Amino acid sequence: MAFLNPIAFYLLGTIPIVFALHFLKLRRQRYVVPSILLWRTSTEDQKANIPFKRLRNLLLPFLQCLFLLLIITSVARPALRIPSIVHGKIIYIIDNSASMLSRELGETRLSLAKKEVLKQIKQVSASGGGVMIMATQPSKHHIHQAFTTDSQKLQKAVENIPSTHIGHQTTSVFDLAVQYVDTPQDKIVFVSDSFENMRVTSIPINKIAIGSSVENIGIVQFNVERIADQYTVLARIQNWTETERQVDTRLELEGNRPISEKTVKIPAGDVQSVLYSISAEGLEGIAISLHLVDVTDDFALDNSVWAILKPAKQFRILLVSDQNQPFLTRLLNSAGDYIELQSVSTAEFNAAADKDVVIFNGEILKSKDFFFNPGRETVIFVNPKGALPVLTETAFDVISTPVSVIKEDKTHPIMQGISFMGLRIKESVERKLPTGGSTIIESEKGPLIWLGTEASKHFLVFEFDAFNPEISSFPITIPDVALFMYQYLEWLDSRTATVQSISLQQTDDGMRFRTGEKLKIDLSNSETRNIQVKKPDGIMVDLNNDVFTEADQIGVYSVYEDELLFDRFAVNLLDPSESALTSTNSENNAQEPEENIKTLKPLMQEIWQWVALFAVGFLLCEWWCYHRN
C-alpha cells in the first residue's frame, strides 16, 4: 500500500489533544453530609457489577482517537499497487468519430471502445510518467487526461469522451501524440473501428479493432437548387447491405411537416438517386430535410440530411467582347431569369460596378482601371465587390499545336460530377500560373483553366478560346459545360455568403456544410460582439471571433446577434467512407521482453473511500457507547 498524500499524517499531532480534552473534563463539587454509609454500600455493589471500569473510562477517548486516525488516513489517500504488464508511457487514442456511433449488440462502438480501454487501464501502467487519454475528434482539445497513474482520473477521462458526428480525421491527433513519445518503450495505442488511410508516423501504432462489418443504408449526396420558381432536391442513397432493399424517403419542412414521399429500390452495394421538385413560394429561408423512413440498419446518423432553402439569386453578367459569341450567349440566356446578361464591346466598356460577373473575351484588355495579362482568346470571369482585380503580367506563349487534358481537380466544388478528360483543343496559351492561382484543368503544356484570388475578388481564366467550336470541343461538351458554368456561379455566390467554409473545398453552397468543417461567420456588418451559435442539440456557443469550430453535429445551426436571429446554416455527414462501417482486424505488437518487466511501475488504485466508510462506522459506535453510558 502507498499513500498519495502522505503529508496528511502531520495531522496525527491532534490525537493527544483528544486525550487532553478527555482528562480536562469538569470536576464535581463537594458537599458535607451527615453520613455516606448508605451511599458507600450502594456504590460498592455497583462497582462489583461493572467489570473493567478503568478500561471503560478510556473507551470513549479510544474510539474518538481511532475515528480521527481513520479520517487522517483517508485524507492521505491510501492506494493499492496493481501490477502492470507493459513498460514506458502509454497513450490511448480513442476514436470518437461518427462511425463509432453505429450499434452492435445493443451498444455503440464507442461504448465498446471505452470498455476495452478501461479493462486495459486496470492492468497497465507506465514507468516513465503513466497513461494519457486522447480522442481523435476534440470538443476543444485532443487530450482528455495528461499522463497519470491515478486510475480514477483515467477512468473518468475515458467515460467523459463525447461522441461526435465528424468523419475520420486522425492527422492532428497522431501528430500531437508523437510529440509525447520520448523513448522506445513508450507506446501509442489506437482504438478504432477502421484503420484505413491512417497517417504514417515514425512511431509504430498499436491497433485495437472495435466492431465488425455491419449493415447500413445512408444518404451520401444531397443537393438543393433554386431554378425559377421551383426548388429541385436531389439525393443519392447507397446500399451497403448484401441484398436489394426498398427504401422509403420523406421530404419535410421544419416542424416535421411532410411535403412528399417516394420509394426507391437499391440493389446490393449500389447507389440510386431520388429527385423531388417543390414550389418555392413562401419557402425562402426555411429548413428542409430528407429522411429515410423505417430503415433497419446499424447506423442512423446518415439517414437524415438538412439544408436551408435559399432565396432566388440573379446574377448580373456583363459580356465584354469584340467578337460574336453565339455559344456563350446562348448558354447564358438558357438560364432564364437566373442570369441578366448585357453585352458591350471593348471600346464601350467603362465600368461594371453594378455587375456581379464580368466576362472579358479578347486578346488584350487595357484601360485606366484594369490591366490583364495579354493572351489570345482569354475569357476572364470576375466577381467584383468594388474594383475589378488586377492580374500581375506574366510571360506567355501561344501554343499552335493541339493539347489534351491530363489532370483535373476533382476536389473543387465547380468540378463535382464533371469531366473534361476527352476535351480537344487546337490552340492554347502557355502561361506561368500567378501567385495564388489554382489549376482546375491542366494540359501537358500547363494550366488550361485556372482560378485566382486577389484580396476578396475571384477570377477564372480560360487559356484557350473556350466558346469557339473551331478551336475546341468545350462548347459542345454537354451537359458538362452548362453544369460547369452553373457550379462556378454557385461557388462565387457561396464566397459572398455570411457563413463560409475555411477548412474544406467540397462545400456546395453557403448554407450547407459537412461535419468537422471550420466555418467563417462574416460579422463585418454586426454592431455588437454578442454573437452566439445555437447547435442542433440546443446548446448555445459564444462566438469570440469569426471562426466557428464546433460544427460537430448534424442538423440546423442558428446564429444569434443580441438574441436576435442573424443567420442559419445546415451541417450534414455525407461521407460514404464513414457510412461504409468497415472494420479492420487489430495488429498487436509482439510480447514484451521478460527483462523489461522489472521496470514496471504499478497503477495506484485509491481506497480512501473504504477508509472513510470505516471511520463513519466507528463514529456511530462511539455515539452508541456514549449514550449507553
Strand line-up in the sheet with most strands: 18-17-19-20-27-26-25-22-23
Strand content: 25-35%
Rounded mean pLDDT score: 79
The best one-word shape is elongated
Total of helices: 10
Largest sheet: number of strands, sense, barrel closure? 9 strands, mixed
- Our measurement of the CA-to-CA distance between the termini, rounded to an integer number of angstroms, reads 38 Å
Strand tally: 36
Rg, Cα atoms, Å: 37 Å
State the helicity in percent bands.
10-25%
Q: Name the structural class.
A: alpha+beta
Low-confidence stretches: 51-55, 364-378, 382-389, 506-510, 585-601
In short:
With 629 residues, this protein is of the alpha+beta class.
Question: What is the element layout, followed by pairings?
Answer:
Layout: E1 2-3, H1 15-23, H2 37-48, H3 53-75, E2 78-82, E3 90-94, E4 103-104, E5 107-108, H4 109-121, E6 131-135, E7 143-148, H5 151-159, H6 171-178, E8 187-192, E9 205-209, E10 217-227, E11 230-239, E12 245-253, E13 257-266, E14 271-279, E15 287-293, E16 304-308, E17 315-321, H7 326-333, E18 339-344, E19 357-362, E20 378-382, E21 396-399, E22 403-408, E23 424-425, E24 428-431, E25 438-443, E26 446-454, E27 457-462, H8 480-495, E28 499-501, E29 512-514, E30 519-521, E31 531-534, E32 540-542, E33 547-548, E34 555-561, E35 564-572, H9 576-579, E36 603-606, H10 608-628
Parallel strand pairs: 3-6, 3-8, 8-9, 17-18, 17-19, 29-35
Antiparallel strand pairs: 1-2, 2-36, 4-5, 6-7, 10-11, 11-14, 12-13, 12-15, 15-16, 19-20, 20-27, 21-24, 22-23, 22-25, 25-26, 26-27, 28-30, 30-33, 31-32, 31-34, 34-35
Helix pairs in contact: 1-3, 3-10, 4-5
